[in-house]
Amino acid sequence: MAKAKPRVKVPKSAKAGDVITIKTLISHKMESGQRKDKAGKVIPRKIINKFTCEFNGTRVFGCDIDPAISANPYLEFTAKVPEAGEFKFTWVDDDGSVYETSKKIEVK
Amino acid sequence: MKLDRRQVLGLTAGAAVFAVAGIRVNPASAAAEETKKQVMEFTGGKEPASGKITLKAPEIAENGNTVPISVSVESAMSGDDMVESVMILAEGNPNPDVATFHFTEMSGEASATTRMRLAKTQNVVAVAKMKDGSVYSDTRLVKVTIGGCGG
Fold first, then answer.
1. Which of A50, A61, A86, B27 has the fewest beta carbons under 10 Å from its own?
2. Is A78 in Cβ contact with B102 (below 8 Å)?
3. Consecutive H or E run containing B54
4. Are A87 and A55 spatial neighbours (Cβ–Cβ below 8 Å)?
5. What's the whole-model pTM score?
């Protein structure tokens, strides 16, 4: 499989103390472990099982993900912006790989 | 107790009938039971109240592979009036867990949106756990045209 590619949408700037909406998407098959291949063998489960978002090192939002989440898992949530800084997003795969990306935000 | 061949045959047949009957006993309620157990595990045995939490899901989902759902909880998100986590469950899926969202004071609001898989027409349940220990839940029935769990 191609490497999971995260995409994140964060507003470029916000007023201090504002609550902003963050949208994230990562390309991933999210193989549920329920499907069978042509030979009738179960395709082993391989999903992203955890997502976290941090702002300047403080946890903002986290999510435990089960196989019932669709392929290319999409997550939308809110965050408070007390100061300028950087959002860090982390996805954890079943096989242990970690996908990361980050986005800066300015305060007006 | 001694059993001859006849009796053994009779017993096995009887047991088989029971097994089938057991499975046939309203599968919907069995699934609900399972979900209920999971909810209780999540809340630590507390019966969730209604209100405060809103689960948004389409009435009819044409494709069970991607069903958009969003959940929001009324809360100030500071002090004791805080949502700690929200669990989403699907009663009719092979595995009822869908996702658990963890919120913090930095979240600002307790709301999240995602897309989920639904195997068939079923109830989707959202349960919110607050910092003060109270629990709230909301349920939506989603009709699914094409199931989304492969097979």
1. B27
2. no
3. strand B53-56
4. yes
5. 0.83
